[in-house]
Amino acid sequence: MPHSDFKPLSLLSASPAAATGTGAEPWTPLPYTDVPRYDARSLLTHWPRLHAGHALPPPAAGAPLAEGWALYHSGEFERAAALGLLHGPDGLALANQATAIYANYLEPREAVRLSMFRQVIERAGAQVAAEPDNCQALYWQAYALGRYSQGISVARALAQGLGTKLKGALEHVIELQPEHGDAHLALAAFHAEVIDKVGALVGRMTYGVRAETSIELFERGLTLHPHSAAGMMEYARALLMLHGESRTGEANKLYEKAAALTPADARERLDVELARAGLTD
Question: What is the reported pLDDT for 24?
Answer without folding.
Answer: 64
